Amino acid sequence: LDEDIVYGDVLDLIRPAHLGAVISSAAVQKLHDQISMLRSDCIVSEHVKPITMRTHAYDFAPRVLFANPFAAEARTPSANRQAYTIMNTELFGPVSTIVPVRSLDDIDRLVEYSEFALTGGFFAENPDVTEHLLQVMPCGNLYPNRKCTGAFVETEDFGGLRSRSGAGIKGMFALANFVSKQIVSGIYPASKNPDAASREMNFLLTRANFVLSKRRS
């Protein structure tokens, strides 16, 4: 893990931390159980950032889990199961899972395996890849090339294609219970094609005007 990532007390204003303790002893135990299950099925390696100084009884060392590189291809029953397990194990803690992919087809397959679609994000330098992911990722709030937080509460809807019972919908967008809406907020990669660059700028300006109008209202 990057040595610049600081683990500690997130409320410490003198030495701010990026990551801190989880919310309860039950949350710590659940994370251990989930990771143990993943290790036995589809995780081939694990990198843990040691905690040098304990700050809380519910400390949990940040870690990255590396999945079987063939799981994304899902060409065998075993790989199918592994892909489904990885994409539907919701880890509430400082844990990231990395699934290697070889093509956009692998990404499409993993997206279809996931039962979740509330919030998502990705980083891409290629405009064609960005356009493809904007089309296939069904998240209610989608963040390309930026951090995946920052929705305007009670202005933007908070749901997605796989939202359950509309419980996440807020604000004026009650109609979103009956349709699949998507908020796209991020940075579009620069294009070498002048016409495409103009189209991208118009897209960003339209998005900016939309957000500003909602803020004023």
Short description:
The protein is an alpha/beta fold.
Explain what the structure shows.
The chain is an alpha/beta fold and about 220 residues long. It contains five helices and six strands; from the N terminus they run H-E-E-H-E-H-E-H-E-E-H. Helix 2 links the parallel strand 2 and strand 3 (about 95-100). The longest helix is centred in the last third of the chain and has 23 residues, at about 195-215. The relative contact order is 0.10.
Element pattern in H and E: HEEHEHEHEEH
Helix content: 25-40%
User: What Rg, in angstroms, do the CA atoms define?
Assistant: 20 Å
Report the major sheet. Answer: 3 strands, mixed
